[in-house]
Amino acid sequence: MELYKKEDKEIIFQTQNRDPFFNYLTEIIVSFIDKKKGRVLDLGCGAGRNVLAAARLGLEVVGVDANQKSLEIARDFVGQMRLSGRTKFVKTNITKLRPKQFGMFDYVILQEVIEHVEDYQSLIDFAYSSLKKGGKILITTPNDPKQWNLLDDYAEHVRRFKLNEVEKALKEFKKIKIFTIGFPFHRMVITLYNQLLKLRKRHHEAKSFRKNKIFHGFYYLVGTIFLRLDDLFRFTPWGTTIVAIGEK
């Protein structure tokens, strides 16, 4: 990802752990964790946002990522919250995992991950094999190839998904819940931002949102309000992001 290649740890932390959209995604994921005890596997854990959220609930969490810089941030983040005892971080390529490599889990999180890999089905199959009976896979991923934009380029996404593609990928799960979030307001903001970048002939830069604390505070407040309003439209297929829950 461009973020890891170009930015320092502070910008990565702010982007991944202090962004209204990513924090909102974590809130959604956590809302489907209904056990007070158990094990969670976060594949592609990044800077540890979901690891911390699950550990705060009292669960044991394993975070896996290939990027050393993001794992260092995640360890520091969890350590500052005094939750290192409930967490473990592993540096490895998540596309080369062996079945049940980390044991069995009650939940497997794939948040903004499957759009980065060519063989996403193998990753979902690994998650299925790592889940106990009744366990849940928790997925978020960009919706609708027609919504492709400059942020997808920046994040080095391989694809955006259609709803039926995600549903098909979860065919082994007995119970599936799929919906979209981010319509109409988040989608409107993304569209306007992309038009502005194209007009100015510029590319997205994460640090441009983080330099000015006043601007970042305004962005966080407005973004949070818009996402709450978007909750009213979860029944539509037009959101920016797919949320999928599968129970084994």
UniProtKB/TrEMBL annotation:
Domain of life: Bacteria
SUPFAM superfamilies the UniProt entry points to: S-adenosyl-L-methionine-dependent methyltransferases
CDD domains reported in the protein's UniProt record: AdoMet_MTases
Name the record gives this protein: Methyltransferase type 11 domain-containing protein
Annotated source species: Candidatus Gottesmanbacteria bacterium RIFCSPHIGHO2_01_FULL_39_10
